[in-house]
Structures are given as structure tokens and as C-alpha cells.
UniProtKB/TrEMBL annotation:
GO terms for cellular component: membrane. This is Porin. Residues 1-22 form the signal peptide. Residues 15-278 form the Porin domain. One of its GO terms (molecular function) is porin activity. It comes from Saccharophagus degradans. InterPro entries: Gram_neg_porin_domain (IPR033900). It comes from the Bacteria. Keywords: Signal.
């Protein structure tokens, strides 16, 4: 069993249970992290020049129980420093093993988006303090619904097909914190493990609705205001841009596509991952593409590593380009729409970054990590530098 698989097993994130008498098994994990940017002008991943001990810190407890005859129950609670250590129920589901190859899951469960989705919050399970933020950018990782895990042997490969369908109605961090509803959601991920090498592909889709109170209130106001005047100007030209400004109907389709490859022979570690998110008819980016490659080498208890990656966003402004040109006043309206709603900094992101890090397994259940990241936002012509430290443990 290679080191990566051992870590996954050690984290206890699987559905192992104590006994058939419905005894409850408890395990948990924690990350105590600190960091700061290297100048008073730098801002990156929630950090600034003042040393912060809460942004990536968390504590989690998981309870699992084998109810017998293939039935089990699992619950996981996580408290995060960035949320003022308020505990949140991350998982709460019942699993049923139909046979040796098929397991059904019902309840709040993890969506299988990424290579590290199964143990996304368990920093001890990977070499970084956190996986690359740009690639792992979805504002949610769990859903309420039903799922199935189907395992098989295909030649020399272990095949795992993970299917989940559900719905999310909660506040999500989009362009800012928004009340959101993701319905008609489904996700499919297929992983093939060949001893030291694995391949993964995933796809997900959902209908996205979310509230934008500042625009909704501006449009409903009886008084003149910039938003209302902008919409009115387009209306006079024969165009209704209300649906693009508001994301409160079911025409806003979101899609996720991901590919990953991992090599880990216990000595060398190499991972590559590509993710693509597309969203229609909103002020969010039309397309978000992220990718990274990481390489690490183990020297006993020490694992130095390097990661390079990029994040590229395309704005949702193509519908403006399709409108007629030539009228100076109308061109001015389109430019206002671009600058204020559709081509903001978040929508035209063009980032490059690299991370140098070291993991030290100073204990059988704990690791000390240090990561240094240089992050260049090409669209802003700005480079930020971030230094982070962490102790990650499982228990």
C-alpha cells in the first residue's frame, strides 16, 4: 500500500465501524495554521501583512456506526477559525451496502469534484497546507441528496464510480456571500487506480439561482439610479439585460469538468489536475479554468515539494459583443455594463502562481508544514507573496 493510500486510511474518513452492536467510533482531524503576506500591500487567500492564526485552522470530529446487515451511519462536524469556530454539520448520512461492489448513501455528503474531494479538509492527507485555492474554488463541497459508490476490477485497475444527486439551499461565497439555490444537481466521478498511478475524471451540473439584493432593490426602486438607468437604456435600444444581471430564474446553468492524474510510489509524488467551471446568464465568470502540477520527493520524514499553476477566467459579456455597434451612446452603455457588472476583476482573472513547501512528519499522527506562495495577478499587474505554517494531525 503506497503512502497516499495509507494516509487516506489513517484519516478514518472511510466508513469503518467498531462492531455490529452499533457501537460508535469517533475519530477526527485538525489543522492549526498561521500565516501572513510579506508586505503591507499584499492580500492573498484571506491573509494580509498581519499574522493570522485562524484562516486555515479547523477542528473536526467524525462519528461512524455500523448498524449491521450493511447499514451504517456517519456524521461529521467541523469548526473553522475563519467562521469564528462555529461548528457546522459537514456530513450526515446513512449508507447501505447492497453487495460487495455497490454502496448507497442518503443524506448530507461530499460531492466528488476533485482528486482530493474525499478528504479535502484533512490536511494531514496531502503535502500542502491546503490544495491549490484556484483549482479548488467551488464555494461548496457537500450536498443534501443521494449517492452511489460502485467499485469493480477492470483488468489490473481498481475502478470506482461515484454518483451523487442533490440540492443545496444555503449562503454561498460567489462574488460575495449570496443566498443561493442549486437544484437539479448531479455529479459523476470515475477513478482508476493502477497501484502507484491513478486517473480521475469528473463532471457535474446544476441549475443556479442566487439573490443579488442590491440590484433587485435598485430595479424595484421608484427613483432613478445607475442600475435602473442602465437597464432602461438597453430597453430603449430593444434589449433586456435583466436576466443577465439577476440570477433568480432557472436559466442559469452551471457545469463542472475535472481531470486528474496522480503518481505516488512512496518515494516520488506527482499530481496534475485540470478543472473547468462554466456558468450561463449571470455576472459571474462565464468560464473559470484552473490547472496545476505538483512534484514532491520524500527523504525519510521530510517531503519538499513544488507546485506551479494558473487560473484563467472569461467574463460573461459575450452577449454584449453580439449587439450591434456604431452608435456612440449605445457603445457607452455597453462599456458601463462591462465595467460595473460583467468584466470586474473577479470575471477577468488571469493568475499564475508557484508554491514551494516542506512537510515534516515529526509524529506518526501529525505533520508540520510550511508553504511559500508567489501569486501573480496578470490582469492587475500585481504580485503577492504568502508564507504559511501549519501543524496537521489526525486522531
Amino acid at each position: 500500500m503506497n503512502t497516499r493510500k495509507k494516509l487516506f486510511f489513517a484519516c478514518g474518513i472511510g466508513l469503518a465501524a467498531a462492531s455490529a452492536q452499533a457501537e460508535v467510533t469517533f475519530n477526527g482531524f485538525a489543522t492549526l495554521a498561521g500565516g501572513s503576506t510579506l508586505s503591507d500591500e499584499d492580500r492573498l487567500f484571506g491573509y494580509d501583512e498581519k499574522f493570522d492564526y485562524e484562516n486555515n485552522s479547523l477542528l473536526a470530529l467524525q462519528a461512524s456506526s455500523d448498524l449491521g446487515d450493511g447499514l451504517s451511519a456517519t456524521a461529521q462536524v467541523i469548526a473553522r477559525g475563519k467562521d469564528q469556530w462555529n461548528a457546522k454539520l459537514a456530513w450526515a448520512y446513512v449508507g447501505y451496502e447492497l453487495n460487495d461492489n455497490i454502496k448507497l448513501i442518503a443524506g448530507r455528503q461530499r460531492m466528488p469534484f476533485y482528486v482530493f474531494s474525499d478528504y479535502l479538509d484533512v490536511s494531514y492527507a496531502y503535502h500542502w497546507i491546503t490544495p491549490p485555492e484556484g483549482s479548488y474554488a467551488l464555494p461548496f463541497d457537500s450536498t443534501n441528496g443521494i449517492g452511489a459508490i460502485i467499485t469493480n476490477q477492470i483488468g489490473s485497475a481498481d475502478s470506482t464510480l461515484h454518483i451523487v444527486t442533490g440540492r443545496i439551499k444555503e449562503d454561498l461565497e460567489l462574488d460575495q456571500l449570496r443566498e443561493a439555490d442549486l437544484s437539479g444537481m448531479y455529479s459523476v466521478a470515475w477513478t482508476l487506480n493502477f497501484s502507484d498511478f491513478s486517473l480521475r475524471a469528473g463532471y457535474a451540473q446544476a441549475d443556479l439561482q442566487y439573490s443579488i439584493p442590491e440590484i433587485e432593490q435598485a430595479l424595484a426602486s421608484p427613483d432613478s439610479n445607475p442600475v435602473k438607468d442602465l437597464v432602461g437604456g438597453f430597453a430603449l435600444a430593444g434589449y433586456d439585460i435583466t436576466n443577465e444581471l439577476l440570477a433568480n430564474d432557472d436559466d442559469n446553468k452551471g457545469n463542472f469538468l475535472g481531470f486528474g492524474a496522480t503518481y505516488d510510489n512512496g518515494n516520488w509524488l506527482a499530481i496534475a489536475e485540470y478543472t473547468e467551471i462554466t456558468v450561463d446568464h449571470t455576472t459571474l465568470p462565464a468560464e473559470q479554468v484552473s490547472y496545476y502540477f505538483t512534484l514532491g520527493k520524500r527523504f525519510g520524514d521530510f517531503t519538499p515539494h513544488i507546485t506551479v499553476g494558473a487560473d484563467e477566467n472569461t467574463p460573461n459579456s459575450a452577449f454584449l459583443d453580439a449587439m450591434p455597434t456604431g452608435n456612440a451612446q449605445f457603445e457607452g452603455l455597453k462599456q458601463l455594463a462591462r465595467e460595473n457588472f460583467f468584466e470586474t476583476d473577479i470575471a477577468v482573472t488571469d493568475n499564475e502562481y508557484y508554491t514551494l513547501g516542506m512537510r515534516w512528519d515529526f509524529h506518526s499522527s501529525a505533520a508540520f508544514k510550511v508553504d511559500y506562495t508567489t501569486h501573480t495577478a496578470n490582469h492587475l499587474d500585481k504580485t503577492n507573496n504568502l508564507l504559511r505554517f501549519a501543524i496537521s494531525t489526525v486522531f
